[in-house]
Every structure is written in structure tokens, then in C-alpha cells.
Write a structure and sequence with these properties.
about 375 residues; mainly beta; Porin; 16-stranded antiparallel β-barrel; two-stranded antiparallel ribbon; 3 helices; about 5% helix; about 55% strand; globular
Length: about 375
């Protein structure tokens, strides 16, 4: 049924250009297709994007080489306001296989997890917004930055191991005079959960300070200094997250485990931009007060929640022809009790931006060093297209 619905949707969208061949839109490339009601009771912007990825990995000890060519991401996005400009909505759907895993689990209703964002945002007072629905939690900056707007082919290993991802709940946002504040209460189990809440709730608080004022066009939440900030800009962020009685390996993410643990996570990040230069530093620390490891009745190790710490630093320079060179260092150190390995990665990336992050080609090479495993050289090439 889901497959037939998606096929029907794509067929409808493909048919539109033929039925409205003479129609024109005032929208420009990268800005989506916009419509508005005659009585100004609602607006909607439709946009879509794809990432086509080549990923090759060479084992430096055995010289074995494995590669793949895939659609890394494919998204359908809808946003606008309903009833009043103070009530904004966002819907984002994933249609690539790498985005919708989870169809074999009762907690997801045995269906694919195509919904990424489904959220209402109410601007109920100046500088204040109340969000209700499923969307990204206010965690580490690299996670909140859209996967469309990254400086490398994908996010760092620190983000992969420690981020708190998306969840369903309520968020309160405030921003004024160089300060941003977000707090949220959510289920703590991750996105698209349909089963009853078996644990507690997740509580998140984030604060940001911008000592030199706001970035141009929200530049603190996209990578690369595409706006070429004329004055130095810096945003410093701190997040604390408490997940009460989590049962997934990483809180909102990972496999379901046969036990529950409280998880505490701290994130500290700093994002800097000036005249084509950009830098992003992130630190993550996740612990479990009751201990991350799970043991059976005989004291044997069964599994563990992913706890530990990690640091990631990346920086780059954007030339005037919109060609960028960037480097990244990532170190992840899981707690020893989890029986997981330390992982260090060194990445060199190149990007060519044709229409900002809406049309670009990116490639990076990463040396992956992990305890007890062979060193691996990962090479990736990706094309991003969105309108």
C-alpha cells in the first residue's frame, strides 16, 4: 500500500509540468515552488532534494576494496503557514531506503519510517515560539544543520555516535539580543514510534551566545561561509539532555536493548565564520548514572548503551570561485565498560558550490583508525540537487 501511494505521488508530481506547461512561477532555483490562498489563509512551499553518493573503502592491511553507488538521501519537503503567519508548519518525508529503515519492528508499526518532520511552530509572542510535533531536538549543532547544508559529504563520527536526533514532543524557543534559548520535553524514543511509551521522557535544554551579533541569513546553521561574513561571527552553544529510562542503544537511536538506563548527554560547540573562513568545533559526552553495560543473572556481559566522549573539529576556506577546501579531525572514545573501540578519523574534503548548497559536488577522503581493526581509507563523491 505504501509503495503504491508513493508511486502515485511521484506520478502526480511528474504530470504537473505537462498539464501546466504554459504556467510560470516567480520562484527561483533552490527556493522551491510556492503557492498561496487568495484569502491569505495559508501558504505552502514544496521542495525536493536528492543526494547521489559513491562510497569506496580500501583496507590498508589486506588491500581489499569494497564500494557502492547509492541514493544517500531523497526528500520531499512542505512548509508554510496555516490560518495565520504566526502559525508555521513543516513536513519532511524521506523516500530513500537509507532514510526509512525500521519497517520490521512493532515499535514502528511494522511500517517504513518515512516521516522526518511533522511540526507546528506558533509565534505566540515577540521572540517566542512554541513547537509541537516531531522534529530535531536542540542537540549538537552539526545534527541540527540540515544534511543539505554540510561542509563534507556527511556528518562526523562524533555526531553519528552521540547525537540525540529527532523526537516527538514540545519545544519552547526564545531568541533576542545575541542569546538563543531552547527547551524541550519529548518521548525520548526517537521518531515514528507508535507503541506506548515504555520508559520516561527526554528533557533537553540548549543555550547559545553570539558575541558579535547574528550571522547573515542564518549562517550559524549552515556550513561554509557562503555569505562571506564581512565581520567575524561566532556562536557558542551548550546543550544538556536527560533521557529517562531509555531502551535504545543511543537513546533515540540504535537497537532496542533488553534493559533501560537513564542517559545524560552534554554538547558544547562553537561555530565561527569570517571572509570565507569557517570553523566548527564540537564536544560530546554521554554517560549513564547506573552504568552503561547490561549483564545477565550470571554476571556475563550481554550488551551496552553507547556512552563515552568525542570531539570533532572542522575548518575550511571558500575561494571566490565558490570552490572550497576543508579538513576535519574526529576522535570518539567509548567507555571501556561498553567493550567498544576508540575511533579516530582524518578527513580532507573539496566542494564546488554552483548554487549554494542547492546544487553542489562534494568529495572527501578519510583515514579511519580503530583499535583492534585494520586501518581503512574511505573515498566518497556526492552530488546534491535541490529546488
Amino acid at each position: 500500500m505504501l509503495a503504491r501511494s508513493l508511486v502515485g505521488l511521484f506520478a502526480f508530481l511528474s504530470f504537473i509540468p505537462f498539464t501546466l506547461a504554459q504556467d510560470k512561477t516567480s520562484s527561483t532555483f533552490g527556493k522551491g515552488i510556492r503557492i498561496a490562498a487568495k484569502d491569505s489563509s495559508f501558504t505552502m512551499k514544496f521542495s525536493t532534494r536528492i543526494q547521489t553518493l559513491y562510497d569506496g573503502r580500501l583496507n590498508l592491511e589486506t588491500n581489499d576494496y569494497n564500494d557502492r553507488f547509492m541514493t544517500r538521501r531523497a526528500r520531499l519537503k512542505f512548509d508554510g503557514f496555516a490560518y495565520s503567519p504566526k502559525l508555521v508548519y513543516k513536513i519532511e518525508l524521506a523516500v530513500a531506503s537509507s532514510d526509512i529503515a525500521g519497517g520490521d519492528s512493532n515499535e514502528f508499526g511494522n511500517t517504513s519510517r518515512i516521516i522526518l518532520d511533522a511540526v507546528l511552530k506558533w509565534n505566540f509572542a515577540p521572540n517566542w515560539e512554541l513547537w509541537f510535533g516531531q522534529t530535531k531536538l536542540p542537540g549538537n549543532r552539526e545534527r541540527v544543520i540540515s544534511s543539505q547544508n554540510l561542509q563534507f559529504v556527511d556528518r562526523s563520527n562524533v555526531n553519528a555516535r552521540f547525537n540525540i536526533d529527532r523526537d516527538a514532543g514540545i519545544q519552547l524557543h526564545y531568541g533576542k539580543n545575541k542569546f538563543n534559548f531552547v527547551s524541550s520535553v519529548s518521548l525520548g524514543d526517537g521518531r515514528n514510534i507508535v507503541s506506548n511509551n515504555v520508559g520516561g521522557y527526554d528533557y533537553t535544554v540548549r543555550g547559545e551566545y553570539l558575541p558579535f551579533g547574528e550571522f547573515k541569513s542564518g549562517g550559524d546553521y549552515f556550513s561554509a561561509d557562503l555569505n562571506r561574513e564581512e565581520k567575524p561571527k561566532l556562536s557558542i552553544g551548550v546543550t544538556y539532555d536527560y533521557n529517562d529510562r531509555a531502551y535504545h542503544e543511543q537513546g533515540q537511536l540504535g537497537d532496542a536493548l533488553p534493559a533501560q538506563r537513564d542517559l545524560e548527554t552534554w554538547f558544547v560547540d562553537a561555530h565561527f565564520k569570517y571572509n570565507g573562513w569557517s570553523s566548527l568545533l564540537e564536544y560530546a559526552h554521554k554517560t549513564s548514572p547506573d552504568g552503561a553495560a547490561i549483564f545477565d543473572g550470571n554476571g556475563n556481559f550481554v550488551d551496552a548503551f553507547y556512552t563515552g566522549e568525542g570531539i570533532s573539529w572542522q575548518g575550511g576556506y571558500l575561494f571566490k570561485n565558490n570552490f572550497e577546501l576543508a579538513g576535519r579531525y574526529t576522535q570518539v572514545s567509548p567507555e571501556r565498560v561498553t567493550l567498544r573501540n576508540d575511533n579516530t578519523q582524518y578527513t580532507l574534503g573539496v566542494s564546488k558550490y554552483f548554487v549554494g548548497h542547492s546544487l553542489k559536488i562534494q568529495s572527501d577522503v578519510t583515514l579511519i583508525k580503530e583499535d583492534t581493526r585494520d586501518d581503512v581509507l574511505m573515498t566518497r563523491l556526492q552530488v546534491e540537487l535541490s529546488f
